[in-house]
From TrEMBL:
Gene source species: Clostridium frigidicarnis
UniProt cofactor(s): Mn(2+)
Protein name (record): Amidohydrolase
Record carries keyword Flavoprotein: no
Free-text comment on the cofactor: The Mn(2+) ion enhances activity.
Biological processes annotated in GO: diaminopimelate biosynthetic process
Stored SUPFAM superfamilies: Bacterial exopeptidase dimerisation domain, Zn-dependent exopeptidases
Gene3D superfamilies attached to this UniProt entry: 3.30.70.360, Zn peptidases (3.40.630.10)
UniProt xrefs under InterPro entries: Amidohydrolase, Bact_exopeptidase_dim_dom, Peptidase_M20, Peptidase_M20_dimer
Length: 395
């Protein structure tokens, strides 16, 4: 099969519909595993388009389009959840839900995936194989992808490859950013409880001060990054919270530290976890205290497959031209739930530019003024369609 489909032209034909969907989602944001309304809207859309689907992972959806013959299966993913954030933009589609906002672009991701489903369904007589559409819940919190994987969204039929995108306010609309290798860091949140012996602040000799111990621990943990990880490999240990004590003249019996680790290789991930335990236990023992350490296994590294990135690049060139494709040199130390998919199947994840200085669309994601240039929606739809279509017809 050798069809030449102008997906961008087709995307422009449904642009108004997709913009309306995105704005509706933006006005009605829902947090992780609470995306009931969002899920219903997506299912209504799929029913209208005649696209079969199944419900997964509470509010998630796995839809599928089958081509004219058996063949490979490619998946496209879009996340659905919003953030616990107050929307302070002055726009007609401002969030109507107090304290909740699509501050990371997942409304756009879902709308783009719906648009891609509509166009690929329209052209399903021109490819063989299958396209799965993964609408992921709870990306921002627990990583809905891992629950979807456990429930079999990559099986029956087996998914051979996956494409995903994320809107990026640092890239101009009309452009995308791609990267080979590691795209996002792995994360490990941790909690450390340091136990000492409380007492009167005027008589420290009668106590084992957990605040002093905690201070030593916090400073020493930074040496893992500065002295045990090679400088050419980024890593982060952030202590974001410390709680202990009730008054100026009382030494408490316990202090709690909360933080997060970010690493870019599985080897460094294990090293940082192990050394955090060894250093914390060593300091507590030396200072006559005790500790309890809990390290969570959170998002893994997001690995882009080189072959898949090359395929994506060729597909995107057809839509936006080579001059509008930025090759990113550095990974993000942020995390991304798509990583769970990328650890299971060959994948390509990329940034879709949404920045527009002239319109003041420059504010960072996870901020109360975040917005996108909606011209990016048709581009996202067409690139996703082209990547999936070319994968099924040329591989």
């Amino acid at each position: 099969m050798n069809f030449n489909i102008d997906f961008y032209k087709q995307a422009l034909e449904i642009e108004d519909e997709i913009v309306a969907i995105r704005r509706d989602f933006h006005e009605h944001p829902e947090l992780g595993f609470e995306e009931v309304r969002t899920s219903e809207k997506i299912k209504e859309f799929l029913k209208k388009e005649g696209i079969p689907y199944k419900e997964v992972s509470k509010t998630g959806i796995c839809a599928i389009i089958k081509g004219i013959e058996h063949g490979k299966t490619v998946a496209l993913r879009g996340d659905m959840d919003a953030l616990p954030l107050e929307d302070k933009k002055d726009v007609s589609y401002k969030s109507k839900i107090q304290g909740k906002m699509h501050g990371c672009g997942h409304d756009a991701h879902s709308a783009i995936l719906m648009g891609a489903a509509k166009l690929l369904n329209k052209n399903k007589d021109k490819f063989k194989g299958n396209v799965k559409f993964l609408f992921e819940p709870a990306e921002e919190t627990v990583g809905g992808a891992r629950y979807m994987i456990k429930e079999g969204v990559l099986e029956n039929p087996n998914v051979d490859a996956i494409f995903g995108l994320h809107v990026a306010e640092q890239i101009e609309v009309g452009k995308i950013g791609i990267k080979y290798g590691v795209f996002n860091a792995a994360s490990n949140p941790f909690t450390i409880k340091i136990k000492g012996k409380g007492g009167h602040g005027a008589h420290p000799e009668d106590t084992i001060d957990p605040i002093i111990i905690a201070s030593q621990v916090i400073l020493s943990l930074q040496t893992i990054i500065s002295r045990e990880i090679p400088p050419v490999y980024p890593g982060v240990i952030t202590v974001g919270a410390i709680h202990g004590g009730t008054a100026q003249n009382i030494i408490p019996s316990e202090v709690e530290i909360k933080g997060i680790m970010r690493t870019l290789t599985s080897e460094h991930r294990e090293l940082v976890k192990n050394r955090l335990v060894e250093i914390t236990e060593g300091i507590c023992t030396a200072m006559r205290g005790k500790c309890e350490i809990d390290i969570e296994e959170s998002y893994p590294c997001l690995y882009n497959n080189d072959h898949m990135v090359n395929h994506l690049k060729l597909s995107a060139e057809k839509i936006i031209g080579n001059n509008n494709i930025e090759i990113l040199q550095h990974p993000s130390m942020g995390v991304e739930s798509f990583a769970y998919f990328s650890n299971e199947r060959p994948s390509a994840f990329y940034f879709l530019g949404v920045k527009n200085k002239e319109r003041g669309i420059v504010n960072p994601a996870h901020g109360c003024l975040f917005d996108i240039d909606e011209k990016s929606l048709a581009l996202g739809i067409s690139i996703q369609c082209e990547a999936a279509f070319q994968y099924l017809t040329r591989n």
